Amino acid sequence: MGIQLSKGQRIDLTKTNPGLTKAIIGLGWDTNNYSGGHDFDLDASAFLADENSKCVNDHDFIFYNNLQHPSGAVIHTGDNRTGEGDGDDEQLVVDFTKIPVHVHRIGITVTIHDAELRQQNFGQVSNAFVRLVDEANNQELIRFDLGEDFSIETAVVFCELYRQGNDWKFNAIGSGFSGGLAALCRNYGLQV
């Protein structure tokens, strides 16, 4: 079991785990009983941002329609449309050795697909978590359970990996946005 973080905590990644080159970022959630007649489809995304927290171009946005960064630094392992079952619902693989020089932060986010149309929000989602696993030995290093802090939000920044000198750190963010994926894209400087 990894180190349990709470919202706002930051922790060293590569300094305290010197052999860490590849990490699996597992994201999971459950949806509460809800009678809207639609399944929930939650989607994980990664924004590879510069020192101003902006993406340089569309390739720096990794999601279900763009599963791999050209550098190979971040790979999305695929869309899970139901979130059924235990464990990670979606995963991103981060290779610290391949992250381009211009990338200083990687925002890890989850959005609800067609949230407005389906009248869904994160108030109907429970047990959301993000965990970081060392790919080499499958050991969980960090876990952040988001708690039930959300009501009408349709997008949440779960965490951020950020560069400090030659090291990478993990920031447990857990902040919600209304306006779904479009709002997140604007936040990271991408045209929608």
Written account of the structure:
There is one protein chain. The chain has a six-stranded mixed beta sheet with strand order 1-10-9-3-7-6, with no helix packed on it. A six-stranded antiparallel beta sheet has the order 2-12-11-8-4-5. The mean pLDDT is 91. It is built from two helices and twelve strands. 6% of the residues lie in helices and 42% in strands. With 192 residues, it is mainly beta.
What are the defining features of this structure?
single chain, 192 residues, mainly beta, 2 helices, globular
> Number of helical segments?
2
Strand % is 35-45%
Strand order of the largest sheet: 1-10-9-3-7-6
What is the mean pLDDT?
Answer: 91
Largest sheet: 6 strands, mixed
Structural class: mainly beta
The low-pLDDT segments are: none
| Terminal residue distance | 39 Å
Order of helices and strands: EEEEEEEEHEEEEH
Helicity, in percent?
under 10%
List the helices and strands and how they pair.
Elements: E1 3-5, E2 10-12, E3 22-31, E4 42-49, E5 61-62, E6 74-76, E7 90-95, E8 105-112, H1 115-118, E9 125-134, E10 139-145, E11 155-164, E12 167-177, H2 180-187
Parallel strand pairs: 1-10
Antiparallel strand pairs: 2-12, 3-7, 3-9, 4-5, 4-8, 6-7, 8-11, 9-10, 11-12
Task: Give a brief description.
The chain has 192 residues and is mainly beta.
